[in-house]
Amino acid sequence: NPYGLTYKIYNAVAGERFILNVWRYKSRSNGCLVAACENIDDFYLTQHKSSGVKDGNWEEIKLDFIVPESANTKTILAYVYTTDENPVYFDDLTIQCTEKKVPPVFKAQSVFTDPRDGAQYSSVKIGTNWWMSENLNYPQNDSLFCYEHKLKLGKKWGKLYTYTEACKVCPPGWALPSDVDWKNMEAELGIRKAELDSFGQRGYDQAIKMRERGSSGFNCQFSGAFGDGFYNLNRGAYFWSGTEMDSSHAICREINNRADVGRYKDLKKMKFSVRCIKKS
């Protein structure tokens, strides 16, 4: 049975903070802790990694999140899960609800206007740099850049760009963040130095901080991507960095339903979202 300990949180309220804890037997490290609505497009979040707290042969997994607007008044399932054929042992699932929200990491927020088309964007200062806290939507009148070629989706989630387009599209005074810029921001949010240069999923709960309502103010929107077709709207976000790997590949970031942050290389012809950066 892939499902284990389960609890239902009825009538969740947007803005409520929940802290889930469970203990996993260390010899089986592939089971995860999940918080999700019955319709996973409304809300889905997983934690695969130990918090580092141990008790003998057991290790703690912790999932700390704020209920998003999409899950307001709905039932959230808190449960443990594994797709492994071998048994994974869990014990002592606890659920805490608190009105106290996660203290914000960011120190300042602002709004700026793109002089090219008059569009306004919110931004947040993380560390020493200003980051757009919504996806770029330029040019506003070109549906070819929009998810499913629909302008209304561009207004909501921004547009999708190839690597070459992404390098040219930021407003004056702003730039496509390099891989180093992304790593500096991730370090500010708590990813350990030893993990920053790794490819794959890194960190512990930094993606939660970067999601909508997250404590960083980055406000990640799950705007999907385009490869051979459009995919993963509402289930993942993909952002270009300005750093090339070779003539065909560049480094990107993936934030999805996991609590950690993905660093990958991908084909430059893929279409991903863009967040611009302004250095102080």
Describe the protein in words:
With 280 residues, the chain is mainly beta. It is built from 5 helices and 18 strands. It has helices spanning 151-157, 163-168, 179-188, 193-196, 206-210; strands at residues 3-9, 17-25, 32-37, 44-47, 54-55, 58-66, 76-81, 90-98, 108-113, 120-126, 129-132, 200-202, 223-226, 230-233, 237-244, 249-255, 261-267, 277-279. β5 (54-55) and β6 (58-66) form a beta hairpin. The model has no long low-confidence stretch (mean pLDDT 93).
Give me the side-by-side strand order of the main sheet. Answer: 1-7-3-4
How many strands appear in the DSSP assignment? 18
DSSP helix count? 5
- Beta content comes to 35-45%
Helical/strand content category: mainly beta
Alpha carbon gap, first and last residue: 52 Å
Relative helix content? 10-25%
Low-confidence stretches: none
